[in-house]
Specification:
single chain; mainly alpha; 3 helices; about 80% helix
Length: about 60
């Protein structure tokens, strides 16, 4: 049953990736306005936020 939970969470998360791009862009801009971050960290931070947001929504959709 645990494997099914992981697979369903990843399926829900993969769908939510497209919807989490805009919030990740805005969150990255907000973080950069508060903290001086080097330009080379902009894209990795945005990608990690996209994955974090989509996984959290996928977990919510699976277990709520």
């Amino acid at each position: 049953m645990q494997t099914l939970d992981i697979v369903l969470t990843l399926v829900f998360s993969s769908v939510m990736i497209m919807f989490m791009i805009f919030p990740a862009i805005k969150t990255t801009e907000w973080i950069e306005s508060k903290i001086d971050i080097d330009e080379k960290w902009h894209n990795p931070m945005m990608l990690s936020l996209i994955l974090l947001f989509s996984l959290s929504i996928g977990l919510f959709l699976r277990f709520a």
